[in-house]
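Training component of the fellowship. As part of building independent skills, the fellow (R.M.) carried out the full modelling exercise for a liganded target. The chosen ligand was 2-acetamido-2-deoxy-beta-D-glucopyranose. The inputs are recorded below so that the supervisory panel can assess the work.
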Amino acid sequence: MKLTLAIAVSLLATSVHGVADHLWYRYSLPNITDWYNEIKVHPDMEPTSTYFMSNGFGNGYFGIQPNAPNKTVLFSIWDADDGTKVTNQYCGPKSICSTFGGEGTGLHVNYNFNWTAGVTYAGLIKTKSVVPGYTDFSGYFMHENKEWYHMATYRRKQPTPWLTGLYSFVENPSSVTINITRRTNFGNQWVRNATGHSEELTVAGLDHTSPLVASDRYGAGVDKTSFYLFINGPSNDIPKNTTLVRQATHQEPDWSMQGKTGGKTTKKSTKKTGHKTTKKSKKTTIKKSSKAGHESHRKSTIRSSHHSKVVKKSHKKHEEPAQHHSDKHHPGKHPQKKHEKPAKHH
Ligand SMILES: *[C@@H]1O[C@H](CO)[C@@H](O)[C@H](O)[C@H]1NC(C)=O
Ligand SMILES: *[C@@H]1O[C@H](CO)[C@@H](O)[C@H](O)[C@H]1NC(C)=O
Ligand SMILES: *[C@@H]1O[C@H](CO)[C@@H](O)[C@H](O)[C@H]1NC(C)=O
Ligand SMILES: *[C@@H]1O[C@H](CO)[C@@H](O)[C@H](O)[C@H]1NC(C)=O
Ligand SMILES: *[C@@H]1O[C@H](CO)[C@@H](O)[C@H](O)[C@H]1NC(C)=O
Ligand SMILES: *[C@@H]1O[C@H](CO)[C@@H](O)[C@H](O)[C@H]1NC(C)=O
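Fellow's submitted model of the complex:
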């Protein structure tokens, strides 16, 4: 009995701790190449190592973490299904770019920016097919003064550059501070395609990792033009109807990322960094409306509810964010794959 418990605890320590909740965005725009989301973490609900993941998609994700000693912005791309490695095309001057391993492998970048809870930032993912058969994924972070920072561009073996399975989540990869509430808002989501058509994403389906245990308390809902998500709450706040609809802003983001030139530099965002202007690529496209199903991995058991449609090709494993006590990254949940074994800590 004692031994069983010890094993269970050790499995627990290798994975996501407690429930994580996810928002799966609905959209009808075909062939998405640009994916924008705003994030505002709730003050005092940002314990170390939480991953507030704003811009998730089939082959990677982007978000912010209150790691110690530094807060960071993280952008990751998984290696191709056939094992072909992601290659680095650009690593911003303030970025730390490296590989990650475990069950999922790929490249990721940390930008150690001391973000502040209660302030709205944004993430933008842009894709482009530069070399036939490959897709370049660029991750950009928008500071509070609208100045953009180009974190990195990674090239992945993937014939079409469309972003699918768009989602956000909050999760706790650390066994420390397991019962401190983590809460954030994700708002004003927009997508755009290569011919410049855009769509505001106002509808999202709520999902959570499962099974739940008695101590799991999470919630989600709508705050005007944003969605909120929390985990490890003092109590549950689970909407009856898990299809959430936020108010539209009708305010498209600054796709060209020109805010950098007009923005005032604050002490927190003094970098003048590589940035890019948007270019329109003339891709032709494939229709692939998507609403990816996914499965998440939690504790040693896995199972997640799933909305979902077909997902043709499996995508990469999700890497979990770094722990405050370790620099290792591990695969964690994953939107479109059946099931992963618990990640290992080293
Ligand atoms: C980040 O900012 C907070 C609040 O201003 C400050 O207390 C903290 O020391 C800063 N952290 C780093 C690593 O600079
Ligand atoms: C944390 O930030 C400081 C100041 O920018 C930097 O010198 C240090 O290397 C960073 N630590 C880690 C682990 O990234
Ligand atoms: C947090 O979790 C620890 C370990 O399970 C427990 O001892 C403690 O009472 C919990 N604190 C709260 C506020 O629930
Ligand atoms: C972008 O979306 C519009 C509107 O749905 C569509 O007509 C157009 O074909 C799409 N562009 C591409 C490149 O797929
Ligand atoms: C849930 O909300 C969505 C969006 O408002 C709506 O279309 C749907 O009918 C609702 N479902 C139920 C069972 O109320
Ligand atoms: C999406 O792109 C493919 C080419 O990759 C194209 O055949 C298809 O028509 C595009 N879809 C739309 C709706 O434009």
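The panel noted the following from the submitted structure. Residues 21-345 form one domain. The CA atoms of residues 256 and 279 lie 8 Å apart.
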